[in-house]
């Protein structure tokens, strides 16, 4: 009897052993599943990608843009003609979510983009084929490797009166505004200068050469990549926000200290 009890006691397993085995099994199963999923995703990315054509862009345009701009880009009472705007303007308006327009107003606001990069390129190619206009620049123009100092000077002379010297944007008349430039891509910076969207004037190569546009883009990208050296930017709105901050917090703190000292002395 004693031998039998020893065998039974020696053959018992810890209650944690089953939990450990289940955990190991789940980890192994999860690892195999994750590896298989990654392999399938990699295969899908390399085999399914395709480039849309201008014909695909025509279908997208007719389904999403023709109501306002017309089937032949001639424009309607709800939207302007697109003759001569070119592929660059299409890329700017659609890649920033400004188009399709959500509602009529003083200015088309930025909103989430509704199309993929391939679809935007296809629509741009369609408009360019039907009504040629400004085209995409060379990569050198948007590489942000120009003269930052010269770009800053050019920006202050030509752009700062609307966009603020730090590119923070600003209010205009009749509910319009100059947008913040801190998240704009180099390509869309160039597109804005060349196509003149919304209230922005067109800067052709007679106003600003491609080298000067490259310098301005380099300056704006520099601002995007470097934080304010003076500490809190306070919206980069200059003395207005700085004075308001000092008045509220600085003067407010002094008044609070004065009241505390008076109450303490009494």
Automatic annotation (TrEMBL):
Tell me which EC number(s) this protein carries: 7.1.1.8
Modification comment? Binds 2 heme c groups covalently per subunit.
**This protein's UniProt keywords:** Cell membrane, Electron transport, Heme, Iron, Membrane, Metal-binding, Repeat, Respiratory chain, Translocase, Transmembrane, Transmembrane helix, Transport
Protein name per its UniProtKB record: Cytochrome bc1 complex cytochrome c subunit
Sites where the protein binds heme c 2: 159, 162-163
Which reaction is catalysed here?
Answer: a quinol + 2 Fe(III)-[cytochrome c](out) = a quinone + 2 Fe(II)-[cytochrome c](out) + 2 H(+)(out)
Q: Kindly report the protein's main subcellular placement as a broad class.
A: membrane
* Residues engaged in binding heme c 1: 65, 68-69
Q: Which domain of life is it from?
A: Bacteria
- Compartments where found: Cell membrane
| GO annotations of cellular component type | plasma membrane
State the membrane topology. Multi-pass membrane protein
